[in-house]
Amino acid sequence: MSLNEEVELLRTIPMFANIEPSKLKLLAFTSERLTFQEGQDLCRQGDIGDAAYVVVEGTADVIIDLPDGGKLTVAQIGRNAFVGEMAILCEVPRTATITATAKLETLRISTELFFRLVKEFPSMAVEIMRDLARRQVASNDQLTEANQKLSAAEKRLQELEGGAS
């Protein structure tokens, strides 16, 4: 993929959409191009966040470790996904493992470069906030749905136990 193609890809990501082309070209040029093969981890839950990633091509699973030692795939990502920013924004360990499910081409944006862009382009900070808010709404919706299913299951169990007496 050429530098111009990388710039066009970055323009399709909402938080980069309002950045002038010359700055996007600089971002594409200063980003590190990394390839992950199927089964390789882009990052691991608990690791220190040192970069964010733009998926140029391929797919990956977002997996969280469960307290019982199991793993839960919570999302799948593909082209144009922007991941890893939560760990660098919040200065917390990575909240999930991202594992390639097919050959994965990425642009790695270092923490330093990411924050320089945020400072230089306040519109990018607004898009980051919007994206995080959308994720929060989606998480709330999932939690609400899970709680409703749990309540229904508990009610059904009580009914069954009441009928067995």
Tell me the helix content.
40-55%
Give the integer mean of the pLDDT values.
88
Largest sheet: 4 strands, antiparallel
Give me the side-by-side strand order of the main sheet: 1-8-3-6
Number of domains: 1
Counted by DSSP, the helix tally is 5
Give the CA-CA distance, first to last residue: 69 Å
Structural class: alpha+beta
Question: What's the CATH class, please?
Answer: Mainly Beta
Reconstruct the topology from this structure:
Elements lengths: L2 H9 L9 H10 L1 E5 L4 E3 L7 E7 L2 E6 L5 E7 L4 E2 L1 H6 L6 E4 L3 E7 H10 L1 H43 L1
Antiparallel strand pairs: 1-8, 2-7, 3-6, 3-8, 4-5, 4-7
Helix pairs in contact: 1-2, 4-5
Fold and architecture overview:
This protein is α+β, with helices and mostly antiparallel strands and 165 residues long. It has a single domain (3-164), classed as Sandwich (Jelly Rolls), CATH 2.60.120. Helix content is 47%, strand content 25%. The chain is built from 5 helices and 8 strands, in the order ααββββββαββαα. The relative contact order is 0.18.
Note the main attributes of this structure:
5 helices; Jelly Rolls; 165 residues; 47% helix; alpha+beta; four-stranded antiparallel β-sheet
